[in-house]
Every structure is written in structure tokens, then in C-alpha cells.
Design a protein that fits this description.
The chain is built from 15 helices and 17 strands. The chain is an alpha/beta fold and 451 residues long. The chain has two domains: 291 residues, Mur-like, catalytic domain (UDP-N-acetylmuramoyl-L-alanine:D-glutamate ligase); 138 residues, Mur ligase, C-terminal domain (Protein-Tyrosine Phosphatase, Chain A). An eight-stranded mixed β-sheet has the order 4-3-2-5-1-6-7-8, sandwiched between helices. Strands 12-13-17-14-15-16 form a six-stranded mixed β-sheet. A hairpin with a 2-residue loop joins strand 9 and strand 10. Helix 4 crosses helix 5, helix 11 packs parallel to helix 12 and helix 12 packs across helix 13. The longest helix is centred in the first third of the chain and has 21 residues. It is globular.
């Protein structure tokens, strides 16, 4: 691998991690000012929410690219490589371009580090690199996913022309608040004067907080179920067939090659965001149809192996796990489903287990490589309280857990198939599983980076 890339990755990883936020925009704003405020170089579609942010951002980018626009896409966290986070025209930055983006930012970052009480964080550095790369390209429009929250997230130095809020639920309560209303209030900070707000279907508490912010800054609100909606949905081979009523037109017969009702909702929000940015008439049925057919969501109910069927998923909170469990039950007719679970210790693990339990026959608990990963022994104890001890197996490492799950699936099906494996619990878990299975020659290719 590129030695310069490895050096830069080590330097970035030495900084304060992205989950350890300090609520201020002073550092990132100071760095952006030294760089010439690259976040203002093109229109931005800003995406926040609790679940579905990355999928929705990727969908918006696909629709904009289908319109012939040159796009920038900034998402987080990554599955396998930091380079995934910053894409231009759907392609992650090459190793050389990632190095160049860092070198553009590094001298100015050193100046800010010397002036501030705290050094720039990992996420602040990557955010500056993304905006600098997009300005240098240059791109016509950037789709930017919030890292954590909204108001104090580093990406909020940009003023989104369209502010998209996917469903809000409880997550990161230590940083964002312990109620849905408090979390929605924090996320509402991306709604700025002059923007258009596109809101997924929300709980009453979340909707009230988001609409209050929009009223304060005199921003029009476009809401799922009122201004746009999924009007038809059927299962299809490899995904689902949709009909969507958009802001400016109706779009029937859309093949979305992704699973789950939640992905249908995400696609409706993405379409509304793309329409809101265009400011013109309907996008055109053929354009939308081709864009939908090209949509991908790596690590989100992604089939990476066929015998037995292995699915990786990034669900990392109870609401996400509930959506994933419902989707896998709907889309696959497994006689037996074995789960492999590795989670962060700071999550609502009992809540995630409660949502997962009805969908699976047994669970193999383990850990991933992240420092925050829960110890398998503690996870086994919690899982036994929900599943019963006879349905729980613990493994020290993810590769061991996958092997155990494969043996359980084979035993359950008598070697004839009909059993599946769901690997879930966090983005880190999904990313590591994809790499392990790819190394074994069994993974798919959707959205993967070359090693």
C-alpha cells in the first residue's frame, strides 16, 4: 500500500476520535477560513438524521450525477478505507488524491492547532479535506452527511441549500440529549436561512422540533407523507419495485435494488432533495428510473455471499436494528437465520438485542477491532437475558464468529441451504466482515475499494 497514505492515516488516527465531540465550530471555521472557505465553492445538500443518512446521501448523489452534474459526496463512518468518505463523481479519492488533499490542508491545520486549546480532531481534518477536494475538482454540487448531530458538527460550517433530515431516534444520547425532541433540536441546526428543509416521516416530538427551527429561520418545509411519498411498493428480484409521488412529478415503476421499507423511504427523501435543488420541473421518468436502478448501499443489508447467504448490515441502534430485522424477514425466506453480533459498548445494546431476537434463531456474539467494541463475555451475558442461554454462542474474534455461524447454518439446513447469516451491530462490524469475506474470495463487489 502507498506508504504516504499509511503515514497520513496514522496521523489522522492520532487525533481526537470523531465520536468524542467538543461542541464548537471555532477550530474547523478557523481552518476553513485559512483555506479560503472551500465549503462555499458550490451548493451543498446537507443530510442529517439518526438512521439512513449515508444511504440517503448516496441516493441523492446518484440522482444528481444522472442529471449530468459533477458531484462531491462526503459520508461517514467508513466501512473499509478512509478514502471511501470523500468521493468525486461516485469514485472514492485515489490514494494519490487523498494524500494531496491532506497536504493541501496540513500546513493550515498546524497553524490552527497552535492557536487553539485543542488540536483539530480526526473528523474536523477529514471534513476540511473533503471541502478542499470538492473546491479543487471542482464539483457542481456537494452532498454532505453530518457526522454526529447537526448544530456543532464540523460539516455545519457549510450552509446547505437543501437540508435533509432522515428519521430521528435515540442514539448518541451522551452527546445529543436523552429525548427524541432534544436530539431533533440538535440536528435541526443544519436548517439555515435560505435553505429548503426536506423531512422524512418523523415522530411527533421530532417533527415539532424540526418544524420549530424551520419557522425560526423562515425556511419552507417539505415533509414525507404530505409533499412527497412512496405510493406503491412491491418486492422484486434483488430489491423492490416502487412508485413515488415527488415534489414536481410522479415516478412509477422504479426498481430499487435494495431491501427494506426504510430504503424505499430513504429513496423518496433523496428524490425530493434532488427535486428541491433543481428548482425546475420533474426530473424526468427515464432519468429517475435509471438512477434508481444504479443505487447502492454498501454495508446496508448487503448480500456478500450466496452459499450460505451472508448479509452484512450496519445497524447500530435499536431503531436501525428494528428496520433491518423487519427488512431481512420480509425480503428473505430463510428457514433459519443466524446472527453474528459485535457492538459498541456505549450503545443501547439491550434495546438492539430486543429488536433482533424475533428475527433470528440464534446469535453468535463477538467483538470487532474498534476500541469501543463491547467485550464478548459482557455481550453474551446481555444476549442470554434476551435470547436465553441456549441460543447464544460467544466467540473471541469476528472471523471465529463467522465460522461458527456458518457451521450452525449448515447444521440447521442439513447442508441443503435455506439458512442464512446476518452480520450486524455497527459499521465497523459490517466493514470488517466484508473485508474478511472478500479475502476468502466470497464477497460481492458492490461499492468496494481496491486493496
Amino acid at each position: 500500500m502507498n506508504t504516504e497514505l499509511l503515514r497520513i492515516e496514522r496521523e489522522l488516527n492520532s487525533r481526537r476520535p470523531e465520536h468524542a465531540i467538543v461542541p464548537t465550530l471555532e477550530r474547523i471555521a478557523a481552518l476553513a477560513a485559512l483555506l479560503g472557505d472551500p465549503q462555499r465553492a458550490c451548493p451543498v445538500i446537507h443530510v442529517t438524521g439518526t438512521n439512513g443518512k449515508t444511504s440517503t446521501a448516496r441516493m441523492i448523489e446518484t440522482l444528481l450525477r444522472a442529471r449530468g452534474l459533477r458531484t462531491g459526496l462526503y459520508t461517514s463512518p467508513h466501512l473499509s478505507s478512509m478514502r471511501e468518505r470523500i468521493s468525486i463523481d461516485s469514485e472514492p479519492l485515489s490514494a494519490e488524491d487523498f494524500v494531496a488533499a491532506y497536504e493541501d490542508v496540513a500546513p493550515y491545520a498546524a497553524m490552527v492547532d497552535g492557536q487553539q486549546a485543542l488540536r483539530l480532531s480526526f473528523f474536523e481534518m477529514l471534513t476540511a479535506m473533503a471541502f478542499a477536494a470538492f473546491a479543487n475538482a471542482p464539483v457542481d454540487v456537494a452532498v454532505v452527511e453530518v457526522g454526529l448531530g447537526g448544530t456543532w458538527d464540523a460539516t455545519n460550517i457549510a450552509d446547505g441549500a437543501v437540508a435533509v433530515v432522515t428519521p430521528v431516534a435515540l442514539d448518541h444520547t451522551a452527546y445529543l440529549g436523552d429525548t427524541v425532541a432534544a436530539i431533533a433540536t440538535e440536528k435541526a441546526g443544519i436548517i439555515k436561512p435560505g435553505a429548503v428543509a426536506v423531512l422524512a416521516r418523523q415522530s411527533e416530538a421530532a417533527a415539532a422540533a424540526l418544524e420549530r427551527r424551520a419557522a425560526e429561520v423562515a425556511v419552507p418545509v417539505l415533509s414525507e407523507g404530505i409533499d412527497f411519498a412512496v405510493t406503491g411498493r412491491d418486492l422484486a428480484v434483488g430489491g423492490q419495485q416502487l412508485a413515488i409521488s415527488g415534489l414536481k412529478g410522479s415516478y412509477p415503476d422504479l426498481l430499487l435494488p435494495l431491501f427494506g421499507a426504510y430504503q424505499a423511504q430513504n429513496s423518496a427523501c433523496a428524490l425530493a432533495a434532488a427535486e428541491a435543488l433543481s428548482g425546475a420541473g420533474p426530473l424526468g421518468e427515464d432519468l429517475v428510473r435509471s438512477a434508481f436502478a444504479a443505487m447502492t448501499a454498501p454495508g446496508r443489508l448487503e448480500v456478500v455471499r450466496r452459499s450460505p447467504v451472508v448479509i452484512v448490515d450496519s445497524a447500530h441502534n435499536p431503531a436501525g436494528m428494528a428496520a433491518s430485522a423487519e427488512a431481512v424477514t420480509e425480503a428473505f425466506s430463510f428457514g433459519t437465520l443466524i446472527a453474528v453480533l459485535a457492538v459498541s459498548a456505549d450503545k443501547d445494546v439491550p434495546g438492539m438485542l430486543e429488536e433482533l431476537e424475533p428475527a433470528v434463531s440464534s446469535v453468535v456474539v463477538t467483538r470487532n477491532a474498534a476500541a469501543r467494541s463491547m467485550d464478548p463475555g459482557e455481550l453474551e451475558r446481555l444476549a442470554a437475558g434476551v435470547f436465553g442461554p441456549d441460543r447464544v454462542v460467544a466467540a473471541p474474534r469476528l472471523d471465529d464468529a463467522i465460522d461458527i455461524a456458518a457451521a450452525l447454518a449448515d447444521e440447521a439446513s442439513g447442508g441443503l441451504g435455506g439458512a442464512g447469516i446476518l452480520i450486524t451491530g455497527s459499521t465497523t462490524t459490517a466493514g470488517e466482515a466484508r473485508l474478511l469475506l472478500r479475502a476468502a474470495g466470497t464477497a460481492g463487489t458492490t461499492g468496494e475499494l481496491a486493496p
